[in-house]
Amino acid sequence: MHSESASAPSRRDLLALIGTVAGSAAMYEAMTALGLASESGYKGPIKLDGDPKGASVLVLGAGLAGMTAALELRKAGYTVQLLEFNSRPGGRNWTLRGGDSFVELGGIRQTCEFEQGLYLNPGPWRIPYHHRAVLHYCRQLNVALEPFNQLNHNALLHGSRAFGGRPQRIREIKADFQGHVSELLAKVTQQGKLDEAVAKEDKELLLQALKSWGALDRDFAYRANLLSGDVRGFAKEPGGGLDAAPVPGEPIALSEILKSRMWFYLRNFALHEFQTTMFQPVGGMDMIGKAFAREVGDLIRYDAKVTRIQQNDRGVTVSWVDTKTPDATLEAVADWCVCTIPLSILSQLPVDVSAPMKAAIDAVPYMPGVKVGLQFKRRFWEEDEAIYGGISYTDLPIRQIAYPNTGYNQSGRGVLLGAYLTGGPNAFEFTSLPPAERVARAVEFGAQLHPQYRTEYENGIAVAWHRVPFTLGCAGAWTDAPRAQHYSNLCQIDGRIVLAGEHVSWIPAWQEGAILSALDAIGRLHRRVVNT
Amino acid sequence: MHSESASAPSRRDLLALIGTVAGSAAMYEAMTALGLASESGYKGPIKLDGDPKGASVLVLGAGLAGMTAALELRKAGYTVQLLEFNSRPGGRNWTLRGGDSFVELGGIRQTCEFEQGLYLNPGPWRIPYHHRAVLHYCRQLNVALEPFNQLNHNALLHGSRAFGGRPQRIREIKADFQGHVSELLAKVTQQGKLDEAVAKEDKELLLQALKSWGALDRDFAYRANLLSGDVRGFAKEPGGGLDAAPVPGEPIALSEILKSRMWFYLRNFALHEFQTTMFQPVGGMDMIGKAFAREVGDLIRYDAKVTRIQQNDRGVTVSWVDTKTPDATLEAVADWCVCTIPLSILSQLPVDVSAPMKAAIDAVPYMPGVKVGLQFKRRFWEEDEAIYGGISYTDLPIRQIAYPNTGYNQSGRGVLLGAYLTGGPNAFEFTSLPPAERVARAVEFGAQLHPQYRTEYENGIAVAWHRVPFTLGCAGAWTDAPRAQHYSNLCQIDGRIVLAGEHVSWIPAWQEGAILSALDAIGRLHRRVVNT
Known about the structure:
Two copies of one chain form a homodimer. Chain A is of the alpha/beta class and 532 residues long. Chain A contains 17 helices and 23 strands. Helix content of chain A is 35%, strand content 20%.
């Protein structure tokens, strides 16, 4: 079924062959040359060889999935048109800057008051290095990237009932937990309690490794000394000249860390999805959407709200209205349709598809998500606290405070992500509040981590995705059971309609999922076209 | 003795007072407001109040220590002059670009052939977020910063006798070691073997924490599954559309990791010195030196080689020669001298200082260090291998390959740090080779990690610090015994002479040490001047 495996050996097949014939060293070279070790979901620039014979495609939605499809289909010789609900390209690929305004469900309009150059990405905000498709298009379309900092060792972990409400530095919790774990395991290794699990010849190596990895002293203890200071930081940092020797701080006891539950956050810094090197586009995430629109903008009809999707043996007819003159219903026709409308909205439209696909469209709930951007008079997190980018985590309803990963060490105003809520009743509760109240709460809660909020706050803006008219939610919330039952049906070419978007992927909520699903959909669609 | 404690309560004293009077919550707020948790060696912008009464200072060396001293002393009202051996400011704060050339000991001249925009920092190349003095001057002098990536999860670990010589991805060694350690500790916890060390009420929490932190499954095992894939990456990454489910890879056995000794490198990613968020100046490290020179360049006499330093009750006389016309010896005189000449060179000059200071000057050996920059036709590490910045480590003589932390995802040529050797016979052996041979070896060894070297290499340049005439070594290599015996003597104001530089600090080899030592030295010097 896969797009490339039918016509040519896959890279995996090729590697297996090379491994068999030439041994592992040659295979490694081949893997390197082929751009592996692990196999990406992205197979390299798509090749749509063969004549589309004048076929036309109507693409619904000018987000990254829709614009990818439009870009590649036109290049392959199709006649393409694109309908987009918003007055701008990108969809959830979206950046809010001073002067931008938008209306959420319920009719409240917010206007962003950020100073020029500052912004909030309400939707996607980071690009993992292994999202090869996004990176390919960024390169092809000249979108400049800069690092996104997920783990800042000097950012904060905060538990409202831990350590008397005092935030802790990530580096201390991280180093101390690892140190204590290493000490415990070293002790039982020395006591012979691991004899069943660890071979005798490995025991000494394990002790050496734990000592190095856990910053243990010669007694295999994790203690206040220069060794632990070298990983957790010092109470007094080393300096220059006289009186400059470093002074180590006292590690936090294991029991305190366990009870604080702050170990829970350490996982956020280990996940493959968030590993270095991550990226963000310089100037805002919508630089990607804008770059796509430079290529396919001439194909896009903006302010077009789809109201119905019909198909028969000969083609597809989509009814739509211009949202600025909504009384007249218009029609667009094409031989084929690539539909990237979020399932949260598509499930509410009359759509001519098979029962299994309709069931799939109806089966996927959408994650709630709320982001609040806050502008401050100065970058106090850098100036006062040496926090440059990255994320602080808290159990307060705001969940996260993320610091800008750009403009480091400069004077002037700055914008924080003052709240980022996904999933759960907490996100729904925030969504239910009027925007001004969301912002006010973000300021109030955030001041528990950064008292400077009280004097430095200037203005804010809050996007609650369940009230955003063009998605009614943040992203497709797949779980195992609906995935097993419906995912494959959702991916099929149903007559003359095929779906694409992050919801038609195994990487929901990520732009990579949107692009890969579009490439997979148009690859299969194209073969159907050229083979009939 | 400390610069601020005599006149005003230190921040530490203030905090202790607040803690005593107002309790820990108030203390946290105060700490935040004061820019702590940990106390930096940098005390904020230096205040040299009081009249220097027309005193003059001769500063030797226009590296960061010397230029910091010159900048602040002139601002405080001193008459300052600065003698510098090189024809440029910065000293070890140095960047090589296409067209630059330099002559090393032995007379060999190398000319850099890098394409415009590419560079090598032969000396310092990274700035930790807690190096507050460097960051202060970067901000004050408008030096733009961008992140330096120390840990790139997708970079390589390579052992010539491990895994058949095949490099491993850092993320796999890192995640697998942590997973196995967690599994082992979870097992003994469940078996009751930790009952002495861990309180009963903490046991369940410890198990939960290990499960989360170590990516263990419901049986507390670390295995090939989606959980381990989420931290180590997948054999096949999740994709979009059909046939897009992720496929986990098999974790590397603990015994294999232990025997590979690759755990040794994990420490490089945990050290406080290398923790996120690190920085590099945009465009090259010498942007800092050039920024200082914009302020104090008018005070600098370049090409000035100091040959003798004399002092008496009334002042200091320094003999020097112009390196372009070395036959005539010239003299510079001043009331005071701040000498930042590296000890490796100063110890060879006749200097009028006390016996204890002379002994200190002679006591500190200098670390060997070699860096090799290599230009390639294309950024194959990004294009083929998804390695964006960061460092690969190997047990080969080159030790490290570091990828550029700028210009990510762009087409065209790139420069790698193809070798970075510090300390040990290996560095001396490389130093003893002619530069072209150092470069050739870096290419030959590097090809074991990146076979693309063989076709993509274009040109290279090699700096071996023991053959660099202005330092004769990389940095002061303090160890405990000489530190205990000599460090305090080295810091003293000896008559009218005081030393500064990274060698007069607890942070040797770091620019922060150079600047902090200069601030400490001129602070004490100034008090002596205003109090006499």
